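Blinded run. Sample ID left blank on purpose so nobody reads anything into the name before looking at the predicted structure. Input follows.
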Amino acid sequence: MILPPGKLKIDFLQQLLPKPQSLDARVIVGPQIGEDAAVIDFGETYLVVKSDPITFATDEIGWYLVCVNSNDIATMGAVPKWMLVTILLPEAQTSEELVRNIMGQITTACEHFNIALCGGHTEVTYGLDRPIVIGQMLGEVKKDRLITSSGAQAGDELILTKGMGIEATSIIARERESELVNKFSPDFISRAKAYLKVPGISVLKDALIAADVGGVHAMHDPTEGGVATAIHEMTCAASLGAIVWEEKLFISEETQQLCSEFQLEPLGIISSGALLIAVTPSKSNVILSALAEENIPCEIIGRLLAPEEGLWIEEENGQRRTLPIFETDEITKIFGE
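Blinded prediction complete.
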């Protein structure tokens, strides 16, 4: 059976992961569905470690790389500090200028987020048609500040920041610009491309604000498969159900128009820049206020349930339908056509 592009199916991936009892005793959080990073006991603190590639974007690939990897450190309550990078470049297409551009983007992003670029590997690779970059990010967190997806609890409210499809908006505008110029104004395309940095695909600020307020039991950033798949992953990690209120899900005008143009479902499109926060209800409004003070859009979009209650979207009329999972991200539809 040939597998489709995107993440492996959750049930298949679970079969591949090592058993917790087989891991070194210092591994506090090992490979698990819904957990954004590994956690290793380093004495007085925990070391939080993540590896993630950039496979959809080509323009500004270095900024994507640093943000996506640092996001997964931040969702664990940690601060990203050190990064290693592997850069694989296409044969017969790689110039010195291309390499300098990618490295310049990475170093600029690392400086912006106060991350030390510690090393890695770079090569021109046979068989590629575009650059592929892979990051390894390390961060640190005090032991009493660690946050894990498995810590989510039934009754927690789900907060979403910034809305669906932020990363997708920037990718579509950059990768399909030649088509969009015939249908959208230059100002519209410019705004969509700028989503990379405004509102931005980083959730560092969002996560730090939520963690500082307290009452947060879990955080998770929606990447491939979008917000719907991220909720599936969080609830899988914590063995819970969830209900999502459709009327509370939000999306920008630019994102909505681009999704309509390419017939993409916003719930299932790559959404780095958004953050899912599972929080005890008594702290929800405090977090909403703290985020709003920093001009970060946010909404309570649902609630976590006991596992036997399942995973649902509730429509405005009260009708419920099963919360979908997107094993192949919707954005793949714009590639290879």
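Unblinding after everyone has recorded impressions. The chain has ten helices and 13 strands.
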